[in-house]
Amino acid sequence: YRTVRPKGYGVPDDGPVGLLLARAGYPLHRPAHLHFQIRARGFETITTHIYDHSDPHLNEDALFGVKAELVRTFEPASSDAGTMYEVNVTFVMARSKPEKNR
Q1: What is the pTM of this model?
Q2: Rounded-to-10 torsion of CA 5, 7, 8, 9
Q3: What backbone phi and psi angles, to 5 degrees, belong to 23?
Q4: Other Cβ atoms within 10 Å of 78 Cβ, number
Q5: Cα separation, 53 vs 36, whole angstroms
Q6: How far from the centroid of its chain's Cα atoms is residue 16's Cα?
Q7: Do 1 and 90 touch, CB atoms closer than 8 A?
Q8: What number of other Cβ atoms are within 10 A of residue 9's Cβ?
Q9: CB under 8 Å, gap of 24 or more: what pairs does 79-88 form?
Q10: For a tag on the chain, would you pick the N or C end, based on fewer CB atoms within 10 A?
């Protein structure tokens, strides 16, 4: 996958979500990530993230979504459009169950 390099961000601490997370002692960071939703006829939809291995907040995700299998290295790639990054990821899709006649 070729993309711009994602950046992490802080959860705003002045609204209800930030206040709730802070009072619960949760971190107020989202590490750099990309969202993916992959669909194909006859297969279950995959909705997931991949995270940049170099983000310093990987262990401080407010949503606790970082898992080792979702962390990837973003490598610089040449492009006419400017600085791009390449990340290798394989998505394995499961066949959807056939619908039963109603």
Answers
A1: 0.82
A2: -160
A3: -65, -30
A4: 8
A5: 17
A6: 23
A7: no
A8: 13
A9: 79/2, 83/4, 83/5, 84/2, 84/3, 84/4, 85/2, 85/3, 85/4, 85/5, 86/1, 86/2, 87/1, 87/3, 87/34, 87/50, 88/1
A10: C
Single-letter residue type at 70? L
**pLDDT tens profile 45-68:** 999 999 999 999 999 999 889 999
Ranges of the chain with pLDDT below 50: none
Contact 23, 13 (CB under 8 A): no
Which tokens is 91 given?
């998505």
Q: What does the block give as tokens for 71?
A: 């962390």
**Burial class of residue 74, CB neighbours in 10 A (0-12, 13-18, 19+):** buried
Hey, what amino acid is at 99?
A: E
Which residues 6+ apart lie within 8 Å of 88 measured at CB? Answer: 1, 72
Distance CA 20, CA 56 (A): 23
